[in-house]
Amino acid sequence: MAPIIHVEELRKTYPGGVEAVRGLSFQVEEGEIFGFLGPNGAGKSTTIMMLTTLLRPTSGSMRVVGLDPTVNPFAVRSQIGYVSQDLAVDDALTGRENLWLQGNFYHLSPAENRRRSQELLELVGLADRADDLVETYSGGMRKRLDIACGLMHRPRLLFLDEPTLGLDIQTRRQIWAYLEQMKHQFGMTLFLTTHYMEEADALCDRVAIIDQGQIRAVGRPEELKAAIGGDLVHLRLDGAEAQAKAQAILEALPPVRSVQAADGQLQVVVTNGDDAVVPIIQALAQAGVAPHAITVKKPTLDDVYLAHTGKELRAESGSRDEGMQARMRMRRIRR
Ligand SMILES: Nc1ncnc2c1ncn2[C@@H]1O[C@H](COP(=O)(O)OP(=O)(O)O)[C@@H](O)[C@H]1O
Ligand SMILES: [Mg+2]
């Protein structure tokens, strides 16, 4: 079966010269949840806007539901849904009225419109608040309504740009559960962007690691994490001398695959973290080196991101500032 999205050498240079997307090639298979994971400014929204016919690429080729969005934008739009980064629901209407409007926009018959609205309100857990004004909804409820609006015309393929931006972790988990349910219930394909590694890990069948307009790695989260080559042991040591000594000792130990030094820490990749801790501590003790902290962990997508880009994802995400920006945006829309 042909992939539902096929992109080759896609580029976008904005007027003024910002190269937001620099030669992307990837495919999305029907029925999967595919995610773009990358920090702010990586080119995620620019890509999604090109795929959804909202922006013309500078060069490269795209096929979305078998069609070229630059040639057949209306045919593409009839088969896809798009939930933008910013909330699009109208605060002065009720949840049900928002869905009704959306249904009218797609020329649903009144009976069909009513039926789908009710079905979606139940799906996203808003049935009991359906007839309250949206201005009384929480951020998470608005986002769920926004997603429901994107589903009124039963798209085969749903695009979600940062579906949980600025929401608390509990609400995020709830939205992940709804998205998974849609995939299973309707066999829908989902393309989403996020800069939350937990989101990509929990939700996506496959993830593309994106940085500065380029894809650095693509794969299933487990595959990407496994490619790190083992578990991670972090050791904190006092002083450069102790660190260098420890590094030399560890590099000679059988379960150790590699050792990397980074500001006051040694990051050690080992075959199996639980089995490696005791030998590591013993070898260091014999040489008179005493780490003052040692932690063992399985690799996360943050570690994958670091391995492929040389940068930490976490440092740039999850800030208070960003939650604030999301709230400001909601407020602006409410005016
Ligand atoms: N309309 C625009 N005009 C010029 N530059 C833009 C525009 N939109 C985005 N950019 C720039 O393109 C780059 C990628 O942005 P974007 O696609 O929004 O990234 P992301 O969604 O990953 O945060 C950034 O450097 C951003 O400043
Ligand atoms: Mg964006």
Can you lay out the helices and strands and say which pair or pack?
Blueprint: E1 5-13, E2 19-28, E3 33-37, H1 44-51, E4 59-64, H2 73-79, E5 80-83, H3 95-105, H4 110-123, H5 139-149, E6 157-161, H6 169-186, E7 189-194, H7 197-203, E8 206-211, E9 214-219, H8 221-226, E10 231-236, H9 239-251, E11 256-262, E12 265-270, H10 273-286, E13 293-297, H11 301-309, H12 320-334
Helix pairs in contact: 3-4
This protein binds adenosine-5'-diphosphate (ADP) and magnesium ion.
Adenosine-5'-diphosphate (ADP) binds next to helix 1.
Textual characterization of the structure:
By secondary structure, the chain is α/β, with parallel strands linked by helices. It folds into two domains: 221 residues, Rossmann fold; 70 residues, 2-Layer Sandwich (Alpha-Beta Plaits), CATH 3.30.70.920. 40% of the residues lie in helices and 24% in strands. The protein has twelve helices and 13 strands. Strands 5-6-7-3-8-9 form a six-stranded mixed β-sheet, sandwiched between helices. Strands 11-12-10-13 form a four-stranded antiparallel β-sheet, with helices on one face. Strands 2-1-4 form a three-stranded antiparallel β-sheet, covered by helices on one side. Helix 3 crosses helix 4. The longest helix is centred in the middle third of the chain and has 18 residues. It is elongated and about 80 Å long. About 1% of the residues have low confidence. Bound molecules: adenosine-5'-diphosphate and magnesium ion. Adenosine-5'-diphosphate (ADP) binds next to helix 1.
